[in-house]
Amino acid sequence: MAPSAVRDGSAPSPSAPVVVCESVVRIHRHGSIEVQALQGLDLSVERGEMIAVVGPSGAGKSTLLSILAGSDAPSAGRVRVDGWDLGGLSASGRVRYRRDVVGVVRQQTSRNLVAHLTAEENAAMPAALAGRGRKARRAHAVELLDRLGVGDCARRLPHEMSGGQQQRVALAVALANGPRVLLADEPTGELDTTTAHEILGALRTVSREDGVTVVVVTHDATVSDSVERTVAIRDGRTSSEVLRTFSDDGDGGSSVVAQEYAVMDRAGRVQVPREYRDALDLTRRVRLALEADHVSMWPDGGR
Ligand SMILES: Nc1ncnc2c1ncn2[C@@H]1O[C@H](COP(=O)(O)OP(=O)(O)OP(=O)(O)O)[C@@H](O)[C@H]1O
């Protein structure tokens, strides 16, 4: 249990979103140069939900993930994960948060694992750092590896495994301390399509069966098209979301209905997608009209 100093004394309600970002700003400063990686980002993720985060290079995806992972801090705004206020973490709180609340899987399979340790030793290491007994942590490591389909790799070193096997072991490491939130940065980036599907299936199992909230940053359509919510980040803000409903078509196949939404911030600001702006020449000023159940928008009309 985290101390009240970082959790603000209240246990998170089971129905409250696990991840809440409100107007998050992250500014990187190098001498006189400032880069605003996040510019007022809002995001909320429910318990047990699995979302994909997409966006062009430089949009702020990795910065967001680093903040959620507790390895970077917001310059302004509010970030809460499972009741932890990440803007106000002490050094020891940060260590506990990273050890107990979040698990992280990175793109580079080689960076996820310690090269001279076997799969089992890698998967047992987080529990060792948390002070758990040797026997219990090894048993848990073996159980996790089995569950992720790499039990037969327990005695192998990372270089003796395929990329997909290494990512499954990395997932076991990330899950070893029972995190509430799993953060994955391009987890399928170095894998072929079949293996990417397998890793995706493993992430989905973790979210559905264990109630772990999963946030996946990805450029891979295999991943982003197969989750129920994909959040797009542009210029350091959440700009749009795609919500999908999957259903069985009765013949053993499945169908999907996808609907795109623009995200509105607290001040009512909405980013109109570039293709809409270009198609109708929507520039500095647009005309709005409130209808019974929607709002219409027209180009200025040259006045
Ligand atoms: N440590 C840093 N120092 C200075 N600028 C940074 C730093 N980290 C990120 N940035 C800048 O912040 C912006 C957002 O970067 P970020 O890595 O979060 O984007 P991204 O969406 O993850 O991009 P990619 O898809 O290429 O990984 C970029 O302009 C980047 O150059």
UniProtKB/TrEMBL annotation:
Keywords on this record? Answer: ATP-binding, Cell cycle, Cell division, Nucleotide-binding, Transport
- CDD domains (UniProt xref): ABC_MJ0796_LolCDE_FtsE (cd03255)
- Biological processes annotated in GO: cell division
GO molecular-function annotation terms? Answer: ATP binding; ATP hydrolysis activity; transmembrane transporter activity
Does this UniProt record's set of keywords contain Transport?
yes
Q: Where is the ABC transporter domain?
A: 19-260
Q: What Gene Ontology terms describe where this protein resides (cellular component)?
A: plasma membrane
Q: Does the keyword Nucleotide-binding apply?
A: yes
Which InterPro entries does this UniProt record tie to the protein?
A: AAA+_ATPase, ABC_transporter-like_ATP-bd, ABC_transporter-like_CS, ABC_transpr_LolD-like, MacB-like_ATP-bd, P-loop_NTPase
Gene3D superfamilies named in the record? P-loop containing nucleotide triphosphate hydrolases
The record ties this protein, via PANTHER family, to: ABC TRANSPORTER RELATED, IMPORT ATP-BINDING PROTEIN
Protein name per Swiss-Prot or TrEMBL: Cell division transporter, ATP-binding protein FtsE
Biological source species: Serinibacter arcticus
